[in-house]
């Protein structure tokens, strides 16, 4: 394999950094859109409708490589990942953002690498190692600090919103664990395009099953914010992230991706007027320390999910979602 030049590494780091900030801005767009009284299902449908053409183009492009056709089992796996993974992760996230701050949402979402560790340990029937236990405790202590801070300051439905966002993080972790084997068989671009297409269609079907078509008529700012979510926080960073990881590697990308929660706290303070306190920054530091420790732990070679999990540490969300 050809060595990567210093300029390529720098470009890769810049791509990953931009992707991390762009992904983390999704919560800001969602919170701004909620000011116009749009509900979560409608907003999600708009976002996925505007993203769908790009993923369909990516799916068609990936077929040009004459990749082998998917068998029935692989199509079922794609359907499961699209519905039970990414779609549920997005839905729970949008629902949770109705009740919690953008900063708390991003911190809770960012713990999904710890959930990947727990899921794979249970799946493989292997004990959690001491360094991982310490990292998990750090991460969840950070969440507890910010959660208690927001609960004391805002009250209301903070527990419900936190639970919904945690469910989003868990669904995304399931998506990552389940995608590990498929990524090697059908390719990252192809799998991402197929899964996101399934998720988009599911979001649109849910909307029309629960809302009249007239509910798609929204104020102009809602359309602009949905378009920003689709382009700035979904499509563009997904491809930039992949390009960046090819240059710097998944492990370096996961470290750069730690800027995501911090950038959300700053963006929320600037655009939403959310307070940026020492307690929030301290909780964020604990979460970042724990997640970074988990992401950088050495894993045995048979674990195919390690690379996707680290690569997606910049994403996200995910956004997730």
Shape, per Cα inertia axes: globular
% residues in beta strands: under 5%
> How many distinct domains?
1
Structural class: mainly alpha
How many extended strands? Answer: 0
Round the Cα radius of gyration to an integer and report it.
19 Å
Largest sheet: none
Distance between the termini: 33 Å
How many helices does DSSP assign? 14
Spans of at least 5 consecutive residues whose pLDDT stays below 50 are 300-319
Average pLDDT score? 80
Order of helices and strands: HHHHHHHHHHHHHH
Proportion of helical residues? over 70%
Describe the structure.
78% of the residues lie in helices and 0% in strands. The model is unreliable at 300-319 (pLDDT under 50). By secondary structure, the protein is mostly helical. The longest helix has 29 residues, at 158-186. It has one domain. The chain is globular. It has helices spanning 6-24, 26-34, 40-63, 72-96, 102-109, 112-124, 130-154, 158-186, 188-210, 220-248, 250-256, 259-272, 278-296, 306-311. It starts with 5 loop residues before the first helix and ends in a 10-residue tail after the last helix. It contains 14 helices and no strands.
């Amino acid at each position: 394999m050809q060595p990567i030049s210093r300029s390529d590494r720098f470009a890769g780091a810049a791509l990953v950094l931009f992707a991390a900030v762009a992904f983390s801005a999704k919560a800001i767009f969602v919170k701004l859109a909620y000011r116009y009284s749009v509900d979560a299902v409608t907003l999600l449908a708009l976002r996925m409708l505007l993203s769908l053409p790009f993923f369909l183009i990516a799916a068609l492009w990936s077929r040009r490589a004459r990749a082998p056709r998917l068998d029935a089992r692989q199509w079922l796996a794609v359907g499961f990942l699209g519905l039970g993974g990414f779609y549920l992760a997005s839905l729970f996230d949008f629902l949770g953002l109705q009740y919690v701050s953008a900063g708390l949402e991003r911190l809770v979402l960012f713990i999904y690498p710890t959930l990947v560790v727990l899921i794979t340990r249970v799946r493989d029937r292997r004990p959690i190692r001491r360094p991982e236990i310490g990292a998990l405790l750090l991460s969840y202590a950070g969440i507890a600090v910010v959660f208690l801070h927001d609960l004391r300051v805002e009250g209301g439905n903070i527990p419900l919103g936190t639970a919904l966002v945690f469910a989003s993080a868990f669904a995304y972790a399931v998506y990552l664990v389940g995608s590990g084997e498929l990524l090697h068989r059908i390719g990252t671009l192809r799998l991402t395009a197929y899964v996101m297409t399934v998720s988009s269609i599911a979001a649109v079907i849910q909307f029309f099953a629960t809302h009249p078509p007239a509910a798609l008529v929204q104020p102009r700012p809602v359309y602009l914010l949905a378009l920003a979510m689709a382009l700035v926080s979904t499509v563009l960073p997904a491809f930039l992230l992949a390009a960046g990881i090819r240059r710097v590697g998944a492990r370096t990308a996961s470290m750069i991706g730690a800027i995501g929660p911090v950038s959300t706290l700053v963006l929320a303070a600037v655009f939403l007027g959310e307070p940026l306190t020492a307690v929030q920054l301290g909780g964020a530091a604990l979460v970042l320390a724990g997640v970074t420790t988990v992401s950088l732990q050495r894993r045995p070679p048979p674990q195919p999910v390690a690379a996707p999990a680290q690569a997606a540490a910049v994403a996200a969300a995910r956004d997730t979602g």
